[in-house]
Design goal:
The chain is α/β, with parallel strands linked by helices and about 190 residues long. The chain has helices spanning about 15-25, 45-50, 65-80, 95-100, 120-130, 165-185; strands spanning about 5-10, 30-35, 55, 85, 105-110, 135-140, 150-155. Strand 4 (about 85), helix 4 and strand 5 (about 105-110) form a beta-alpha-beta unit. Helix 3 packs parallel to helix 4 (about 95-100). The N and C termini lie close together (about 10 Å). It binds glycinamide ribonucleotide.
Length: about 190
């Protein structure tokens, strides 16, 4: 049986694209059932529409709290029989409502070798620190910020400090590692 995947994203969606392409090519044993986006109009929503993937666009601020916001998402996930969630540049901490139902079945990609540089702009943080080995991490999601058990990592040796040069290296590595890791988890 194919898994039913939801991908949560807030921005450009290049990781969304890599996962969706891998599903379409059966490299990942799943169909992308839903794209959840908390920034209406973000480029990821166009990517999803081009692939005929249903998009759920929500404004978190229009809900009175996180539980109410996540309950709406949960209802849609259940309607779509989603059994696994990938966060792909979703810049929001997952709360108890979603974790209770999907614990151990939510993963995230982060552009650093965690536990170094959690949170926003990990690449900028690492450059600022003068890091010589950058990298990317796929991890299980819990209620912490980019915490949770590490599932896979890839180092990126880089001696310079040119963000424009480094960033594409990080993204390319992310796409490969995310697809590889999710394919392995969902192979059965
Ligand atoms: C990616 O680099 C991802 O690792 C990062 O946001 C970017 C989204 O790019 N996520 C985090 O920083 C999570 N804390 P994309 O929209 O092109 O996939």
């Amino acid at each position: 049986m194919k898994h039913r995947l939801a991908i949560f994203a807030s921005g450009n969606g290049s990781n969304f694209e890599a996962l969706a392409a891998a599903c379409a090519k059966n490299r990942i044993n799943a169909d992308v059932a839903l794209c959840v986006c908390d920034k209406p109009g973000a480029y990821v929503t166009e990517r999803a529409k081009k692939r005929n993937i249903r998009v759920l666009e929500l404004r978190p601020k229009s809900f009175s709290n996180k539980a109410e916001y996540e309950q709406v998402i949960l209802n849609e996930l259940q309607k779509e029989n989603v059994d696994f969630i990938c966060l792909a540049g979703y810049m929001r901490i997952i709360g108890a409502t979603l974790l209770q139902h999907y614990e151990g079945r939510i993963v995230n990609i982060h552009p650093s070798l965690l536990p170094a540089f959690p949170g926003v702009d990990a690449i900028g943080q690492a450059l600022e620190y003068g890091v010589k080995v950058f990298g990317v991490t796929v991890h299980l999601v819990d209620q912490s910020l980019d915490g949770g058990k590490i599932l896979s990592q890839a180092p990126i040796p880089y001696n310079g400090n040119d963000r424009d040069e480094l960033e594409p290296m990080v993204h390319t590595r992310e796409h490969a590692l995310y697809v590889e890791t999710v394919a392995e988890i969902l192979k059965n």
